Amino acid sequence: MSKPADRPVDELTFEDAMSELEDVVAQLEQGKVTLEDSIKLYERGSQLKAHCQEKLKAAEEKVRMITLGDDRSAVGTEPLDPD
User: Fold this and answer.
1) What percent of the chain has pLDDT over 90?
2) How far apart are CA 13 and CA 9, in angstroms?
3) For 10-50, what is each residue's pLDDT tens digit?
4) For 80, which DSSP code?
5) Over 90: is that where the pLDDT of 77 sits?
6) How far is CA 41 from CA 24, 44, 57, 75, 76, in A?
7) Relative to the CA of 30, which of 11, 61, 71, 83 has its CA 20 to 30 Å away?
8) What is this structure's pTM?
9) CB 5 within 8 A of CB 20
10) C-alpha–C-alpha distance, residues 80 and 29, integer Å
11) Three-state DSSP string of 20-57
């Protein structure tokens, strides 16, 4: 199987994208890459960030839909009884 960095961003899972984004940030913070490579890393990082945001938004929407009742009113949103 190919490394996540070898795959198109839109094919990555959220976890793979986050892991790669962490690697990109670490490389940029170390400052041991050329300017050209830094630009490529920054571009990839921007794509990864956008991908992660899209995945999170989709997950939030799924959770929101799960918590809506048939009449579109929220269900299961009462505070939990701590006792």
Assistant:
1) 65
2) 9
3) 999 999 999 999 999 999 999 999 999 999 999 999 999 99
4) P
5) no
6) 6, 5, 24, 44, 43
7) 11
8) 0.74
9) yes
10) 43
11) HHHHHHHHHHHCCCCHHHHHHHHHHHHHHHHHHHHHHH
Structure tokens at 19: 């892991």
- The answer to whether 4 and 16 are in contact (CB under 8 A) is yes
Separation of alpha carbons 46 and 40, rounded Å: 10
b/e 21-49 (16+ beta carbons within 10 angstroms → b): bebbeeeeeeeeeeeeeeeebeebbebbb
Q: What is the pLDDT of residue 3?
A: 57
Query: Tokens standing for 16?
Result: 């793979």
Q: Does residue 78 have a pLDDT over 60?
A: no
